[in-house]
Design goal:
heterotrimer, A mainly alpha (324), B alpha/beta (505), C mainly alpha (330), A: 324 residues, mainly alpha, two-stranded antiparallel sheet, 14 helices, 2 strands, globular, C: 330 residues, ABC transporter involved in vitamin B12 uptake, BtuC, two-stranded antiparallel ribbon, 15 helices, 74% helix, 2% strand
Chain lengths: 324, 505, 330
Amino acid sequence: MKRYLSDRLPVVLFALLFLAVVVTFQCLQPTFLSSANIVNMMQSVSTTVIAAIGLTFVIAIGRSDISFYMSCCFCGVLMAWLVSLGWHPVPAILCGVAAGAAWGSVSGFAVGKLKLPDIITTIAIGSIAFGLGYLFSDGAFIMQNFIEAKTHYLSQYLVLGIPLPVYVMAAVMVLSYYLLERSRFGRAFYAVGATEKAAYLSGVNVNRTIVLAYVICGTLASVAALIMTARQGYGNVKIGMNLLMPCFTAVYIGMSVFKRPCVVGTALGALLVTAIATGFTSINIPFYVSNLVTGFVLILAILLSKVVVREKQPRMAAKEAGRT
Amino acid sequence: MSYILEMRGIRKSFGGLAALDGADLCVAAGEAHALLGINGAGKSTMIKILSGVYGRDAGEIRLRGEPVQIASPKDALACGISAVYQDPQMVESYTGYENIYLGNEGGRERMLAGVNRRRLRTMARELVARYPFDIDVEKPVYLMSSVEREIIAILRALSKECRVLVLDEPTSILTEKERHTLFAFIHTLKQSGVSIIYITHHLDEVAQVCDSFSVFRNGRSVCREAISGGAVDCGHIAELMLGERLSQLYPPRAGQPGRRVCLCAEGLTLDGRFENIAFEARCGEVLGIFGLVGSGIDELSKVLVGAIGESSGTLSKGGQPLKLASPAAAIRSGLYLVPGNRKTEGFLHNLSIAFNVTVVRLDKVVRRLGIVDRRLETSAAAALTEKLSIVTPTVQKKVNELSGGNQQKVVIAKGLFAEADAYIFCDPTVGVDVGAKSGIYEMIRTLAAKAAVVIISSEPEEVLGNADRVMVIYQGRVTLRKDATDTTLKEMLVHAIAREEVRAG
Amino acid sequence: MKGTRISGRLIRMEYALLMVLLLVFLLFSLLCGQAFYQVYNLMNILKAAGSIAILVLGLTWVIGANEMDASFPEVASCASMVFALLLNGKTDPMLAAGASLLVGVGFGCLTSLLVVRFRFHSLITTIATSTIAGAIANILYNGSVLSIKGLNSAALYKFFGRTVLGFPIVFVIAIGLYAAAFLVQEKTRFGHYVYALAENRQAVTEAGVKSGRVLTAAFVLSSFFAAFGGIVYVLTVYKSGQPSMGSSFFLNGFTIVFLGAMALRLGKANVVGTFIGALVLSALTSGLTMLGSGFAVGQVIKGLLLIMGVAVVTAYRRKIVPKGSKMKYE
């Protein structure tokens, strides 16, 4: 019984926190839960969820990726540039996604095969991608052909009253859930993140798993960037620059609720982060205030997950694990 | 004879299990005293009590006849007791003298207090002059040979006014030549009046450097004897170390030797670890390979499944040569290693029993589209937990939350789930209680009916009790190869602790 | 045999960064001709190098201790805003500068509390503190640039406009700070332990060193110098509080520090290397601007330089780690 409670406690806490956030904003701004605002919220939550789920794979293997939010900028402007050349949006989108996968594989190769330290290496690779993104327009907006090509359909097309990105998000969630948590391939990610040597001796291809995680992260980030580009209505190289913080926060909130990086946890985390952000916007408080709140929420989330973990590991065991 | 250090009637238990049960240890000034005993005899617990890492439940420690209280590593240092553990930790790019005085640079302990490297260098040189040894303390540690690193570690201990020095298996990574260098240094230390407690598995070293020895067995000290004339009676010591130990723990052996050769190794060599190892493991029997810690057996187990590279030699299974490409390839071709160090190599932290067990052969629990059938997974894991009597409420419990014995059983359950036809068990019962041990041994014997099983272990009893044929490895070479019924524990141990010349002498 | 040959080659590598610096100057003198060597341009390079060098002085030791600080750009922005706000509130400039530095120290304390006391991952922690610092910088003046009234008459401003023997004072200050930092790094326990910690934390802790204190000092210094740099940028470049000043520091800072790891103490971030790294990067920026090449080229070159620095650091670490029996995938 006690164990059952301690397992469920973080979920209850999260639900209460989320409820408190929603109720607060609803009281401050009665239109917060209006259908228009909910659609708006769903649109912005979808991109955060998609990118954060990609990051979940990298966190699951015990690494970090600081390149996805910069490399996805490249993908966004690539698509915009192709559309401006008169391409049909569908092949342009496919090219953007392929570019995301390519940047992910560059990071994955550097970290997984060359064994370079993950954080700094991905910062460098992300910066290169971002710099190359500038080449398409030298930092200016790319607007040609956008309206004619109906690119905005990607973000605004309503199916049964729900915008298309929400379906993309749902598809990504379902696929990632099955890939990471239900399929045999997903086991490798958690195994590598848990104990690398043991995973290797159990027959897991460690290096391939690391590369794959980065590829997935880069790909999903590019999908998010494409949707955001479509929503803005023009190609902007800085499109993904605000993804870093919400994605990390979402994954860590998920980890503090479910004690491991997982798809549902990340999605819930992204939901909370977006609710806070749109809530502040709806009462006309600028985005940076919500950033302040999100920063503290991130610290709180890690603190919570530390407390939960410390409770479970007897001190001696932790000490021994540290020694080996 | 007056002793500088006396530890008498020391008792210590962990969670009701007695690790030390009235053990004595006495050392005279300027002598090197060997502390002998097989794994789990209580040697390291004794040393940790002496150096203040553990407190003791009962017993007293006297230094020069005066009782002393040692409650922390600091107390031990203040009493002049220092320990150099296996694989001493160093800052690799720092010079020898910087490592000797690390954390002890003199002056005040503020962050901005100066580090006078010239002074440290002079002090280090004086230290070396006091215990003459040809070592360049200005060389960075990463350029030093293993023996130089060991000496730096010893000098670090000596720099703190050390009168009793504990050396825990100092030669485990040294080459033959380096050992003699170290021994010469130990002789110098003895002459300057430092007492040494020398823990080792190698009896030839005891004969060369020590003046007396104590043997520990089951948490008790069974004897203290002097060494005269630089020779030890290996047989006598092996008897003391073993006592009446072979119990009814082990299942009966196979009625007749297996005929079909399943796993066959030839000329396996890994630079600096082992050389020219060959064996045949037949289906239906257990091959036991015995070697002490540091003899190369751990590396051997990993080379067999292709986890360590750059080895030469061939391994074939059922007549087909194996490529030694990777553990994944080994599992695919039906060869599974149950690794020795369960915390880093055996199980996956923070993941459930079911996850751990099935990860080795996910194809067995997959439905269509590569999706793992959780019901299948749970039932498979539950069947194995029951078979191995793993004590746990559910198979969803995380493995690191189980007791040590149950963790080890999970590691073995992984092997069973792999359904290989050749198994290598590396130290399968480290830190496992007696009841669980016999269960594991029975499992291994049952397994051997259908598959070839190799047990690689540093416990002689475990090897002799389970195996049909045994091999002994000493310093990376095979020193004994016999049928289990033709050999004794004593013979095996003798071949695992000393070179041939010493055995003959 | 093999080992000594490699170390021989790597020892020569310690001069690689100076070569890079020479190469950059050579390249731009070829490409830009005389203009690059005009005193005015060279002094501008030194001025830029001095400012960024001050900003990343503390970061050097955090990276040197094998930790991570991603918050320094935002701490600089935040300090610049605090400084500008206080100046506009008629505070004494020295007092205002002191208060801004205290803000930096505060962020350093928060980071080190979380990393040292609660054992947070330093990357995640500093991403969080960086967001908080950035948010505060924006909140202070509603997210817009805060120009400082009457800055031209302030003594502090005039002081930063001066030159010493023709050199911009920022560069002279940076040299002074780096000389002091060099002494701290090479001659004190702090410097001694920072690099020991990076290599083998267990060895240092077992030797009885209070490693938590060393890390705390490193994180606090990193934020302190970030704030210092922020103030310097206000006084020498922007003449206003800039809430998003930090965005350009992120890549530049890491590139400088990791390039720096190629000099003096090979494979370890150190102050001498950082200083040379700052010169390289400023010369590069100036030359590229002169050539009229855009942001993209600079970004890509910096990214490549950063990877180069990381590769050297990694190669060095692999060299000194004792050879165990490594598994194949490692």
